[in-house]
Amino acid sequence: MNQLSLVGSSSNQQNLYYTIDKWTYAENKLYEDVLTMYEDHNSLEFFQHVAFLMPWKSIQAVQYHHQLLLNDITMIESSNFDFENAIEVGAKSEERKIVTRRQKKKAIPWTLAEHKCFLKGLQELGKGEWKNISKQYVTTRTPSQIASHAQKFEKRKDTTTPVEKRRASINDIQYA
To answer: In whole angstroms, what is the distance from residue 118 CA to residue 126 CA?
Structure first.
């Protein structure tokens, strides 16, 4: 219930709030168990049964909790929540929360001009001067992108695979 709005906790205690409307995991579990016993989930009898089992919850609180469940179901069915990029965090169900993964940026291939500028910078400044190569020669790339490109360039240069069996690569160009 309300997995889209779960509240995380750092303890195993059953009395910590589990949902946005401040129900504990145990209360929510009891609610779900009663929910499976009724065909008409909107009946007054259902709400009264839950409130009877949890006298500290009013019928209105049970109805509100039920409405949150319906809202979550509507959101899921309308595909307004990106489950592809969501992961569940926490070992215990009481500690669950939804965290959105960062979207990975698509790599932009190096242009011939960028690679030639990289080679000039590498020739004049040497290996390890990625920050200066970035500032002076390849201003369109970050130092870490240049370092990564240099690793790939060196690996390509040192490979034992015959040239005719390799796929074409910008890193085949070794002189500016």
So the answer is: 10
Would you say 35 and 53 are in contact if contact means Cβ atoms under 8 Å apart? no
**What span, in angstroms and rounded, lies between the C-alpha atoms of 81 and 101?**
13
The residues spanned by each domain of the chain are 3-100, 112-172
How many C-beta atoms lie closer than 10 Å to residue 119's C-beta?
A: 18
User: Considering the domain 3-100 in this protein, what is its CATH number?
Assistant: 1.10.10.60
Q: How many CB atoms lie within 10 A of CB 90?
A: 14
139 vs 143: CA distance, rounded Å = 9
> H-helix or E-strand containing 99?
strand 97-100
Token pair listed for 20: 């946005």
Domain at 112-172, CATH class: mainly alpha
Cα separation of 1 and 5, whole Å? 9
Contact, 66 vs 41, CB < 8 A?
yes
pTM reported for the whole predicted model? 0.42
Per-residue model confidence as pLDDT tens digits over 95-133:
555 556 677 778 889 999 999 999 999 999 999 999 999
